[in-house]
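Dear colleague,

Thank you for sharing your sequence with our group. We've completed the structure prediction you requested, and as agreed, I am returning the results in plain text so they can be pasted directly into your records. Please verify that the sequence below matches your submission; if there's any discrepancy, let me know and we will rerun it promptly.
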Amino acid sequence: MLFELGGVDETLARAAMERAIQKLPIKAKFVIRPGTHGTPEVTI
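Please find the predicted structure tokens below.
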């Protein structure tokens, strides 16, 4: 299962996901995809 958030800062996204993770019946963790926050996915 994958949840993706966009358009919000990391602090707000992390807080929202931590609350949601507590309600899930499975282990989950918050990760940041490479290429976000100003770092390119591909360097030329």
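Summary note from our side: The mean pLDDT is 80.

Kind regards,
the structure core
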